[in-house]
Every structure is written in C-alpha cells, then in structure tokens.
Design goal:
Strand content: over 45%
Radius of gyration: 12 Å
Number of strands: 6
Low-confidence stretches: none
Distance between the termini: 16 Å
Order of helices and strands: EEEEEE
Length: 55
Amino acid sequence: AISQDATGNDIVRVVDPDTRVASDTPIVTGLQEGSFTEVVSGLSGGEVIIIDVRN
C-alpha cells in the first residue's frame, strides 16, 4: 500500500528477499483511477511490497 513519510512523500514498504526485512522506499506516483495508482519511478519491478498489515 502507498503511504506517506513524515514529509509527505509517497513511500511503499519493500521486503528484502534475503533478510526478510521491510524498508520504506520512496516512489513517484502518476495516474490514479479508483483503487489503482500508477508508480512511475522508485521501483524496478519484481520487488515484494507489503500491501496490508493485519494484527
């Protein structure tokens, strides 16, 4: 899921496949339609992104 950091920049949580540790990754978004948002930069493809955290 896309969220914002303390300064309002868009970020996603990306999981490192080796360590299984998630880190905030800055992204730039583009077009939005409904629940879909285009990511125009910040990801290269193939990353594992956390989309929901359940307690």
